[in-house]
Amino acid sequence: MRKASKAKTMTELLRQALNEADNKYAVTKATGVPKASLIRFMRGEQSLRLDMADRLAAYFGIECIRKNDIEAGRRGTIGMRKG
């Protein structure tokens, strides 16, 4: 039986970062993610498109790291475009 993961999901990390953001308007301007999409996402009414999640993750400095890479002492990021 597999152990339950204690790691937060990308959705949880993005919602937390958005909740802690001082200026949501600055987030929308910097990322190009519409404010209405952010609001619906934060309320749990809809998910984000993957490209929007990528831009928000880059803005907040959130990166995906494979568990196998961590266990092997490597830090290989996947799916994140810095731009």
Provide a brief overview of the structure.
This protein has helices spanning 10-20, 24-31, 35-43, 50-60, 67-71.
Secondary structure: elements and pairs:
Layout: H1 10-20, H2 24-31, H3 35-43, H4 50-60, H5 67-71
Mind explaining what this structure looks like?
The chain is mainly α. The N and C termini lie far apart (40 Å). The protein contains five helices and no strands. Helices cover 53% and strands 0% of the residues. It has a single domain (10-71), classed as 434 Repressor (Amino-terminal Domain).
Number of domains: 1
C-alpha end-to-end distance: 40 Å
What is the average of the pLDDT values? 84
Label the overall shape. Answer: elongated
CATH topology: 434 Repressor (Amino-terminal Domain)
Reported CATH architecture: Orthogonal Bundle
- Biggest sheet overview: none
CATH class: Mainly Alpha
In helices, the fraction of residues equals: 40-55%
Strand content: under 5%
**SSE string, helix = H, strand = E?**
HHHHH
How many individual helices? Answer: 5
* Class derived from helix and strand content: mainly alpha
Radius of gyration: 14 Å
List how many beta strands DSSP finds. Answer: 0
Low-pLDDT parts are 77-83
